[in-house]
Amino acid sequence: MERRLNMQIKHLRWWIVGLLFCGTALNYIDRNVLAILEPRIKEDIHWTPEQWGLIHGGFWLAYAAFALATGRLIDKIGTKIGYLLIMGWWGAACALHGFAGSVAAFVLLRFALGMGESGLVPATAKACSEWFPLPERGFAYGLASAGMMIGGIITPLFVGRIAGAFGWQAAFFITGGLCAIWLLAWQLFFGNPAHHSLLTAKERGHILKNRSVDYNGSPDQSDGTRVGLGALLLMPQVWGIAAARFIGDPVWAFCMAWIPKYMSDVRGIPSATIENTVWLPFLAAAIASFASGAIASFFIKQGMNPVKAKKIVLILGAAMMPVGTAAFFAENYATALACLCATAFGHTFWVVATQTIPGDIFPSRYVGTVTGSAQMVSSLGCMLGMYGVGTLVSSFSYMPVFILAGLLHPLGTVVILLTLRHIDAMKRRLLQKENRLGNFIT
Q1: Which class for 102: exposed (0-12), middle (13-18), buried (19 or more C-beta within 10 A)?
Q2: Which CATH class is domain 12-213+224-437?
Q3: Could you state, in order of their start, the residue ranges of all structural domains in the chain?
Q4: Mean pLDDT score of the chain
Q5: Which residue, 94, 181, 327, 345, has fewest beta-carbon neighbours within 10 Å?
């Protein structure tokens, strides 16, 4: 298609962001259908809180096990084919949920869904690093990431109606099938900007001139040789980002998987009310996704180095998180929901910055691997968090969970501030290792 069309599209990189936006929206639609329909499905499959935690733990176990592998795969085979593979897999896994009839089946299918969805963040980050110069990259990634939240907004607005009209099984068939439409558009329009025939010469020059730069804006001097995975993972800048995600991301996993259940089981909120209002935290998160990228990009355009700009965003996001603890103590549903909106805003403001840092300090050939490693560790934290929440809720109450949710992001921010230092020295060491390795590629 790219070769057959005898035309060029102005501002094509922003159309590419639109594709990424839709891809992330589908990701969250397929991920959140189960949580939204939990009150309906449990009428047929009577799971306990521990089993509910086990089901979601299966998703995060797969996410953790395959995030690094999918990131590495995308670095090796390219963003276009890599994204096709991961979405095709997760779309099929989502649709198959409609055939599940037991807790064990849901555990296995959540595991399969997690396998495919584990590649979303590495693929999106790598696509943005390929298509956007550094000053625009944070904003572009924020736009693409906002699709996740838009997916979270629209999911409860239509899956409940589908389930009410045709049964909960149909909701999985339809949402999984939507991926096929996106895959066609991706195959037709995504490509390498270096030789994309739909890209104007002016925009191509803008992208390529400012894309391959290091932390201080100097040209990337490597010949493309990559250091080994082990050497990469030992860098503090890599494991520091991963550790921060391990600490902070389980809060969002809890919000997605447990909040509808908490509102139904503890506060007695009707399913229809939950389905009609649970999208509000995702709206707050969507706004935060735009705001996080826009503020970081503003600071960078004013001459601030990218990591310092992202650290400011991280601190601001972490400062909002303790508000979420008040949701447990709120006297009414509206107040609790408002507190959860603050949690959603703060987390997304925070996590967009952490997810874009690898693209700021590492060459594009490492972005999938570095981001994938952070996703792997983050998912391990989410998996443990799901099991932990189930245990705490069964043995005590939701109170310790909400208290922890307000404290983890500030702790993760401290980790980032301590490990994301000496970036210039890290870049020099990385270049020296590449030069010594020559053409050796792990």
Answers
A1: exposed
A2: mainly alpha
A3: 12-213+224-437
A4: 84
A5: 181
